[in-house]
C-alpha cells in the first residue's frame, strides 16, 4: 500500500459485521450498524513529545482493535474504504 499515516495516526480496515444473530436470525443490510472492530493496516512512527522524543505506538499492523462508533475519518485508499484515526481513539486490542 502506498499510504503511511503520520505521527500517532493509524490506518484501520473495518471487519465486516455478522450477518446472523446467535439465535440464527438474519440481519438485513439496512439494520446493520457499522462495526466498531477492525484490523490495523498501517501505523505512524509515534507521537512526538515536547522535548522532541518519539513515543512508540502500542499497536502494530495486523492487530485487531476495537474503536468508538464515531471514531476516525473515512478515506478511500487504492479503491478500499479505510479509517484514519489517532491511536488514542482505539479502545483496545483483541486477543
In short:
This protein has no helices and 8 strands. The chain has strands at 9-14, 37-43, 47-48, 54-55, 64-67, 73-77, 80-86, 90-94.
Structural features, described:
The radius of gyration is 15 Å and the shape is elongated. Strand 6 (73-77) and strand 7 form a beta hairpin. The chain is mostly beta strands and 95 residues long. The mean pLDDT is 83. The strands form 2 sheets. Strands 6-7-1-2-5-8 form a 6-stranded antiparallel sheet, with no helix packed on it. It has no helices and 8 strands.
Which features would summarize this protein structure in a list?
single chain, 95 residues, mainly beta, 6-stranded antiparallel sheet, two-stranded antiparallel ribbon, 0% helix, elongated
